[in-house]
Amino acid sequence: MALVESLQKAIDYMEEHLLEQISIEDISQHANVSPYHFQRTFMIMTDLSVGDYLRRRRLTLAARELTSTESKIIDIAYKYGYETPEAFSKAFRKQHGMSPSEARKGAGKLQSYNRITIKVTLKGAEPMNYQIIERDGFQVIGVKRECSCGDSKSQEIPELWNEVNANGTVEKLVPHINGEIKGVLGMTDNYNPEKDSIDYWIAVEHAGEVPSGLSSYEFPPSKWIVFEVRGSAPTAMVSAWKQIYSEWIPSNGYEIAELPSIEAYIDSDVYHPNALNEIWLAVK
User: Fold this and answer.
1) Separation between Cα atoms, residue 94 and residue 83, nearest integer Å
2) Could you give the 3-state DSSP secondary structure of residue 128?
3) Among candidates 64, 199, 218, which has minimal Cα distance to 139?
4) For residue range 117-173, what is the model confidence (pLDDT) as tens digits?
5) Do 10 and 27 meet the contact criterion of CB atoms below 8 Å apart?
6) What burial letters (b/e) apply to 136-151, b meaning 16+ CB within 10 Å?
7) How deeply is 124 buried, as exposed, middle or buried, from its count of CB atoms within 10 A (0-12, 13-18, 19+)?
8) Would you say the pTM of this structure is higher than 0.85?
9) CATH of the domain spanning 130-283, picked from 3.40.30.10, 1.10.3720.10, 3.20.80.10, 3.10.20.310
10) By C-alpha distance, which of 34, 17, 16 is closest to 25?
11) Which CATH class is domain 2-104?
């Protein structure tokens, strides 16, 4: 349960300092993990980036203040971290569907995002099939792109997959598969707190020289938990990650290693309702 408890401590810290300019480094310290792993864990457990959560909570409180006090809109904008009324109005309209002045007049319904409380159920109703593997170092090769962790994340990564499938990159990668992990791999690395972004890789395991036009990533010797993921990949992967973080990790004695995790798309038809793929999670 240590992961859940530390995550909740970090959320409590965010709530206590909503009116301050806090960084992902400050927040992750309260969870005793790196900024990269805190952001990843938070997103898997909540479907939000840290930046999205802070923004939604601040705009929720700002809306409450607009409708319950006589404070000036410009003062509320500054209070909740916006340098100009225009920036505040734009963000407010994006979340609530109306301007701050319209909200004050009661022109429509507001969207409220409540404080998150992490709860974990350790019933284990759905069994998880996994194996533990000790591996020497290995290399993956492929392409990577900086992708946002914010609201556009759900579009950017699928768009990258569509692009590499359409332009022949995947066909170029497949002949180079000669390692223990089969299939085409998706993995995240290099969280940038200033940009709220990560590097997303589409790659394959390959022992040998790096072909022209491709990048490489070297994994050190590590212990891996390899989870079986059965079902249509777009939904099954998301469900598996949530089960790993909400059930498996809290009920086992492992800590997540400071390495990228891997989604291995090994089935010939990853969209089949009974497709069999894998998640590789490095632990210590």
Assistant:
1) 17
2) coil
3) 218
4) 876 655 555 678 999 999 999 999 999 999 887 654 568 899 999 999 999 999 999
5) yes
6) eebbbbbbbbebbbbe
7) exposed
8) no
9) 3.20.80.10
10) 34
11) mainly alpha
